[in-house]
Write a structure and sequence with these properties.
Blueprint lengths: L1 H31 L7 H10 L6 H26 L3 H18 L3 H16 L7 H22 L4 H28 L3 H12 L2 H20 L11 H31 L6 H20 L5 H11 L9 H20 L4 H6 L14
């Protein structure tokens, strides 16, 4: 229930934009354009704003094009062949086929098909009805974008909330692997692996929130001045995705190592905990709109914690993944890959030339 309430709080501004925008689109289409039943206008608002995150401008364009295709094909065919079961099948097939040829986006295809059904059943062609419906869709799309611009959610708050969950998931996975190694418990390592496998959802939500935040900051004049605060998250997005993926491999190799394929290095549990702390420090600095200098220094300190002893195969793979995670986090905190790799101490192990 707590997660649902948290999601509702996150999406409340978008719900408000949809509600206000739908009402305004109806009023504009009815009272300004003079359309008696402009239901496409509020529908276009909902689809262009959406209750999801990201690509609202694209959804508006797809909505208008989809309605235009569906209404155009529907008006043309129904006025010629009439209405009925086989006519509906033909109209829908042709409208959706045209939508597929125009664009691969699912919204344009679905909207073309649904608009064609409405024309073939409830709204038979009459005069300029098709043109009016296209104008309604355009009106709703434009009103939707205006609602985003004038009633915006805070783009920085939006991305910071989603990033917080991703950073927490990454730090928690690092700590769980550390505990499993410290206790030599393959069962704990298996639990850490299960938890790590679920972290990709956090990454995808963060990426989606980042795309939406940039969209809001670009469209809304109220937030254009704050676009620079999103730069840190933009820099961190891809490296953090890589770090999460590498933690999964680290957890998988920890299971193998603790089941007897080779003991992990003695320094690794402490190093993983310090890396988890540095991850949360990175979250804190980005959330405050700061350059993540302290986090970068903390990650650099962890990079130097490695020993130079030789390891077995499973332990060597774990070391490789640990080093990859360090490189990922150094990049996420603003460094480039060459500098990050150079910050790692050299390895004195067989095959170390393949390990970053």
């Amino acid at each position: 229930m707590k997660k649902r309430l948290s999601r509702l709080a996150l999406m409340a501004p978008t719900v408000g934009q949809c509600a206000v925008g739908a009402a305004l689109a109806w009023l504009v289409a009815k009272n300004v354009l003079g359309h008696p039943s402009p239901f496409f206008a509020p529908i276009a608002v909902i689809l262009s704003i959406g209750v999801g995150l990201g690509q609202r401008l694209r959804r508006m364009i797809e909505m208008v094009v989809g309605v235009s295709v569906g209404v155009g094909v529907g008006d043309l065919l129904v006025s010629w062949i009439g209405s009925g079961a086989w006519q509906i099948a033909l109209v829908v097939a042709l409208a959706m086929a045209v939508g597929v040829l125009l664009d691969s986006g699912s919204l344009i295809v679905l909207q073309a098909g649904s608009s064609a059904i409405l024309v073939a059943t409830l709204l038979p062609p009459s005069g300029v009805g098709g043109l009016n419906r296209m104008l309604d869709a355009l009106t709703g799309g434009v009103v939707g974008i205006i609602a985003i611009a004038l009633l915006p959610a805070s783009p920085f708050t939006l991305v910071a909330k989603q990033a917080s969950g991703m950073f927490e998931a990454l730090a928690r996975a690092l700590r769980q692997v550390s505990e499993a190694i410290e206790k030599s418990d393959p069962g704990l390592a298996a639990k850490a692996l299960d938890a790590a496998r679920g972290t990709q959802a956090n990454v995808e939500q963060f990426k989606q929130a980042l795309a939406t935040s940039w969209e809001i900051a670009t469209i809304s004049p109220l937030h254009r001045h704050g676009r620079s605060r999103l730069d840190g998250y933009e820099t961190a997005a891809v490296p953090l995705d890589h770090a999460v993926r590498n933690v999964r491999v680290l957890a998988r190799r920890a299971v193998a190592a603790l089941e007897g394929q080779g003991a992990p290095p003695a320094w690794m549990p402490d190093a993983l905990r310090e890396l988890a702390d540095a991850t949360l420090l990175l979250r804190q600095e980005l959330a405050h709109g700061q350059e993540p200098h302290r986090a970068h220094e903390a990650i650099l300190a962890v990079a130097g914690r490695q020993g130079t002893e030789r390891w077995g195969f499973a332990a060597s793979v774990m070391v490789a993944q640990f080093r990859s995670i360090v490189v990922d986090l150094l990049q996420a905190s603003g460094g480039d890959r060459e500098q990050a790799v150079a910050a790692l101490p050299p390895l004195d192990t067989p095959g170390d030339q393949d390990i970053p």
